[in-house]
Amino acid sequence: MTSASPEGAIGVFDSGIGGLTVVRELMNLLPDEDIIYLGDTARVPYGIRSKETVRRYAVENTSFLLKQEIKMIVVACNTVSAVGIDAVKEVAPVSVVGVLEPGARAAVKATVNKRVGVIGTEATISSSAYQRAIKAIDSTVDVRTKACPLFVPLVEEGWLDGKVVEAIAGRYLEELRESGIDTLVLGCTHYPLLKGTISKVMGDGVRLIDSAVETAKVVKEQLEMEGKLRKHGNLSGRRIYFVTDSPDRFKRIGTWFLGQEIEEIEKVEIGDYRG
Ligand code: DGL
């Protein structure tokens, strides 16, 4: 049940909690909009799974959102944006915005020495999707990448800074730092929470690109272009959260990601969990 009017909600999905960094930016930029979020917490993490599995999960999540009254789908997961956004677009009769293109575009705009680094999950990095997206915009940009799989569990434990986190970040980011990049794309939903540590390790000369912030800007532009932007001005957008596993953990940890309490939250069954 999709909506062609500004009154429809923005449908957002992610593998779990991480996409709340995107919701946070959407709420900042578009406070009038209703948001319906699906976090596939029963099957997280996606970042270590095969492309086929991630695509199947992505289509199931999309089908769930399409049963709500939505006017757009935001794929708030870098892994899905890297390996499965075409599968989402194939089944969705509304426009689909991922987090990868906005981040890639912002990186090309920001780099001065044309050396860009990208960090993300194993699935995102091994797909080379960021390289392709950046090269498609400017083929002269040199792209260096690094998977940082320990960052997701660290963030979910609330370990965002301190000696241990800095040591892990230092080890992952050493090569990128030495490669002379001037711009680094945080190509995973969880990484904006590590901005302080990553920035400390990379130094002042490296600009960090937060895909969540960039994606919110693109969502606004797209809604405006389609004549679907809400203009109430009463800042009263409603937010409803669905999860596929117990809401408790999502509620507790999600608060750090969202920067505020999560109120309306419901557990739902989607897809086929046998596979
Ligand atoms: N949401 C994922 C991403 O942005 C990170 C968590 C996961 O691996 O599912 O890539």
Index terms:
alpha/beta; Rossmann fold; 12 helices; binds D-glutamic acid
Characterization of this structure:
This protein has 275 residues and is α/β, with parallel strands linked by helices. It folds into two domains: 145 residues, Rossmann fold (3-Layer(aba) Sandwich), CATH 3.40.50; 111 residues, Rossmann fold. The protein has a six-stranded parallel beta sheet with strand order 4-3-1-2-9-10, with helices on both faces. A four-stranded parallel beta sheet has the order 6-5-7-8, sandwiched between helices. Strand 9, helix 12 and strand 10 form a beta-alpha-beta unit. Helix 1 crosses helix 11 and helix 5 crosses helix 7. The longest helix is centred in the N-terminal third of the chain and has 16 residues. The model has no long low-confidence stretch (mean pLDDT 94).
Q: Output the CATH topology of the largest domain.
A: Rossmann fold
Put simply, the count of helices is 12
For this structure, what is the CATH class of the largest domain?
Answer: Alpha Beta
Radius of gyration: 18 Å
CATH hierarchy: architecture of the largest domain: 3-Layer(aba) Sandwich
Give the biggest beta sheet.
6 strands, parallel
The helix fraction, in percent, is 40-55%
The structure class reads alpha/beta
Cofactors, ions and other ligands in the entry: D-glutamic acid
Q: Are there runs of 5+ residues with pLDDT below 50, and where?
A: none
SSE pattern: EHEHEHHEHEHHEHHEHEHEHE
Q: DSSP strand (E) fraction?
A: 15-25%
Reading side by side through the largest sheet, how are the strands ordered? 4-3-1-2-9-10
